[in-house]
Amino acid sequence: MPATVGHIIGLLEDRYPPALAEDWDAVGLVCGDPNATISRVLFAVDPVRDVVDEALVLQADLIVTHHPLLLRGVHSVAPVTHKGTVLHTLITHGIALYCAHTNADHASPGVSDALADVLGIGDVVPLVPSAHDPRVGTGRVGRLDETLTLEAFVDRVAERLPVTHHGVRVSGDLERLVETVAVCGGSGDAFLDVAAQVADVYVTSDLRHHRAQDHLVDGGCSLIDVAHWASEWPWLPVAAGALQHDVQVLGTTVEVHVSTIVTDPWTLHRGSPS
Ligand SMILES: [Zn+2]
């Protein structure tokens, strides 16, 4: 039985139910015929032109991205903007696009579980449990597989996350021992207050100046700020592996690929001269 786009969506939505997505989010099938048969799936963080070009080279029939293409209202998808060009290229080449965003963040296991796992953090529970089901929710908090100094843990974060120009920034006493770690894939400064109550250190991205400063002067935990893309990328091989497994259980086959194109927006990091 050849797999269809609809079959793959069904498998993805068993693991990342759309009902878990935030109200403001836009998840699900963006383009593509649910009845079309597919043989290759490409997982990526961002639905950008470089990823579409990668799908063309691979001859992928479906791209699964974490970030939505059309989060806000649009009046035109003419190929005169980046998003319009992406959509036209996808439709012209018969490539479907599917997004699993905050539903993949909240599901268990989800995006932050993958981040925790790659950093050696176990026994994780949601940092902000869902009101409906405390087993799912935003971010994760758990214990490191060994007690480390903050500096040694920062080294581990830098070694284990994909390389970006953004790199890894840290705030806190580098000699302090850290054991309980909170993580949130993607933008996590809304959860600084919660992290401060439960963790020795919080790993996330997009930390804003005032939010971070207020957290620190109030005695909050140490902070590790990584590239948004790098914090979410570890979910891709996990989701791809899960799909590969689920497809086999379904009695069919698809080829699954994970994009390694760095779609983080920052293309150079230059430290200030000493
Ligand atoms: Zn994100």
The CATH topology of the largest domain comes to: Udp-n-acetylmuramoylalanyl-d-glutamate--2,6- Diaminopimelate Ligase, Chain: A, domain 1
> What would CATH call the architecture of the largest domain?
3-Layer(aba) Sandwich
Low-confidence stretches: none
Q: Provide the residue-averaged pLDDT.
A: 96
Number of helices: 10
Sum up the overall morphology in one term: globular
Give the name of the CATH superfamily of the largest domain.
Answer: NIF3 (NGG1p interacting factor 3)-like
Quaternary structure classification:
single chain
Strand residues, percent:
15-25%
Helix coverage percent of residues?
Answer: 25-40%
Output the radius of gyration.
19 Å
How far is the N terminus from the C terminus?
63 Å
Give the beta-strand count. 11
CATH class of the largest domain: Alpha Beta
As for the number of domains, it is: 2
Largest sheet: 6 strands, mixed
- Can you list the strand order of the major beta sheet? 5-6-8-9-10-7
H/E series, N to C?
Answer: HEEHEHEHHEEHEEHEHEHHE
Q: How would you classify the helix and strand content by structural class? A: alpha/beta
Q: What is this structure's SSE topology?
A:
Layout: H1 5-15, E1 28-31, E2 40-44, H2 49-58, E3 62-65, H3 82-92, E4 96-99, H4 102-106, H5 111-118, E5 121-129, E6 137-149, H6 150-160, E7 169-171, E8 177-187, H7 192-198, E9 201-205, H8 209-217, E10 222-226, H9 228-232, H10 235-250, E11 255-258
Parallel strand pairs: 2-3, 2-11, 3-4, 8-9, 9-10
Antiparallel strand pairs: 1-4, 5-6, 6-8, 7-10
The site of zinc ion has 4 residues, from α9.
